[in-house]
Amino acid sequence: MRKHLITLDDLSKEQIISILEQGKAFKEILSRPIKKIPTLRGKTIGLLFFEPSTRTKLSFELAAKRMSADIVNFSASTSSLKKNESIKDTVMTLDAMKIDIYVVRHPSPGVPYIIADHIKGSVINAGDGAHSHPTQAILDLYTMWERFGSIKGLNVTIVGDVKYSRVVRSDISGLLKMGANITLCTPKTLLPRYVIDSRVRHTFDMKKAVKDADVIMGLRMQKERQDSGIIPDEVEYNHFFGLKSHLLEHASKDVMIMHPGPINRGIEIDGEVADSKNSVINEQVTNGLATRMSIFYHFVEN
Amino acid sequence: MNNVEIKNAKVLIGGKFEKTAVYICDGKITFSKPKGKHDVIDAAGALVLPSLFDIHTHLRCPGQEYKEDLDSVTKAAVHGGYTDISSMPNTSPPADNEALINYIKLEGAVFKRCRIHPFGTLTLGSKGERLSRMGLMKKAGAVGVTDDGKCISNGTIMMRAMEYANTHGLFIMDHAEDHDISANGVLNEGVVSEKLGLTGIPEIAETIVIKRDIEISRYLNIPMHITHVSTKRGAELILAAKKDGIKITFDVTPHHLAFTDEDCLSFDTNFKVNPPLRLDSDRTFLIDLIKKGLIDAIGTDHAPHADFEKEYPFDRAPFGISSLDTAFCLLYATLTVENKIPLEKWIGLISSAPRKLLGLRPSELEEGQRANIFIFHPKNEWKVDRKTIYSKGKNTPLQGKKIKGEVLYTFNNGKMVYPF
Question: What global pTM score does this model have?
Fold first, then answer.
């Protein structure tokens, strides 16, 4: 295993499968009455969150606790970094405290690499700007793999703010590695002008996008996109690109509805779709915990 | 000052290399052995070349001496073979009046290493609103005007500034960038920016302004120079305009000839520069233009920054490459070694061409001319690191790398200014 998990490029297909399989074992442990295991006893995990996060941070924290690791939290608003407190200096201070794994979230792409250059432990990227969010991709892959047995040949449709999404970049990278077919559906203003990979299809028509889909993944529409004139408004967006129940008729019968959360009901996804039996949005959260345990397991040095 | 004999070198005379001894006698070049005692430089394997002129240097002073000062920038210049540099006016405060032009000329001369030819701003504070005192700045010694770093977006103001600058016979340089389009971009928009999740600066941010500038230049019939053209499309537009008889000229930088946006894949902020490093197809097109003799000049856009600034994440670090120390070596490696363009075909772009553009006296390597020359050894290898570059800005992509080709001596007006 490589030392750092910064993008999915750091993992081979075989390594991803190994993480998924181990994740299944951890998921089983999470269903037991006593959920704690001693795997990371004596190890220290630093949670470095340079931008606000609730779900991801909670998930990492709980995964670490379930594995009996010690946890230290470092939260910094970006404004305090503007006071000439360089990332390098901050991280070198932390490294002097002998932390084994750093879980890093930062609004600027590439920061996990800067941190990796200045520490002795491992870095796990918990999201850097619009660049990468590999643990989200792993949990998404896990959710598909667990349901369908294999990801190869699955038709996965991704709907929403592709251009500014780290989740999409990592999901595409992982899904292509595992052999899925990807279709993006989003207005041109939210689609990268340069295609990330020529194997990825895109359409502006939701009916076409969901046709025969095994998985439909919605993405959060940020309010600021409307304010900066990238979409007209939420009503128009929902009309053309919202995930509505009548669209599901065109998808495959057991289509799985995914969303990394938090969801905007009535904007990118209608409530009845989010709450339908096809939806695995809450299951994704459980899987996130299991797969993050598996990632810790794979990345901690013995 | 001692007279000097440079022997065993190849000397670039009239566009051709000749193996001959060359003498510096009373500050002037001569090919006949002077009487009396003189120092001898054995320059076996080296080349004697006319000294270089940079049309685009960010001095950082006054106001940002933590990035660069007049001592360090003049050292970096002569270390790079330059005896003349043109300073950009985006200092703090901006060089928008005659007092600042005077300051740069007087303070720059203190170190007696190289000459500084200041540019003034086109508009007051480079704000793109009111005209600066261009006439008085010219009188104080400004060689040209530009709002470099910014671009005047208002067409009326651009036209007025050009007409007024032209009234005083000033050279006009434009940094072609539509700031509304480039907005928060930090590197070239393309596959690389999409992969890294960083906001791109599209090619059109440059080309749309070049197109406008061509039209303004044509309409007013006033010459204009576009600096640091980075795109194939931008260069094509200018070449087409030249064919139409429009008086438009342009320069490119060494880094746009040597690097591409793929170099940013490692998030190394030393590759963060504006205009951004473009695609390999842009790079090779510009090199091809040099082969064909269709580029007017090469300017470094020397932009030194402090270490801590370049240690910010890629999206927050400042734009710029520290270039003077290494520009010639990088050009030699890129153009002559990599692309087999003989040195004598392109050296004019950083020596005689910029002087000519600015209407300054040419400085040729000829009998009786002032000895503005440097000695370059094409085979010597040296390591670029914090100690071997003299600019305060250590922000060069070559940092830590070995480069072939070394400047051994630089003479300004017959005086050895490098080594110090």
Answer: 0.94
* B288 tagged catalytic: no
* The pair of three-digit structure tokens given for residue B243, joined into one six-digit string: 């064919």
* Cα gap B231→B176, rounded to integer Å: 11
Which of A110, A192, A194 shows the shortest C-beta gap to B267? A110
CATH (residue range B52-357): 3.20.20.140
Residue A3 lies in a domain: no
Give the model's confidence band at A1: pLDDT under 50 very low, under 70 low, under 90 confident, else very high: very low
Residues of A in contact with B202 (CB under 8 A): 193
Domain over B4-47+369-418 is classified CATH 2.30.40.10: yes
Asked if the structure places residue A142 within a domain, the reply is yes
Q: Does B46 touch chain A (CB under 8 A)?
A: no
As for the ipTM of the complex, it is 0.92
- Cβ atoms within 10 Å, residue B211: 17
B400 interfacial to chain A (CB closer than 8 Å):
no
Give chain A positions within 8 Å (CB) of B200: 193
Q: Which residues of A touch B316 (CB under 8 A)?
A: 108
Quick check: is A190 in a domain? Answer: yes
pLDDT tens by residue, A52-98? 888 899 999 999 999 999 999 988 765 455 555 678 888 888 888 88
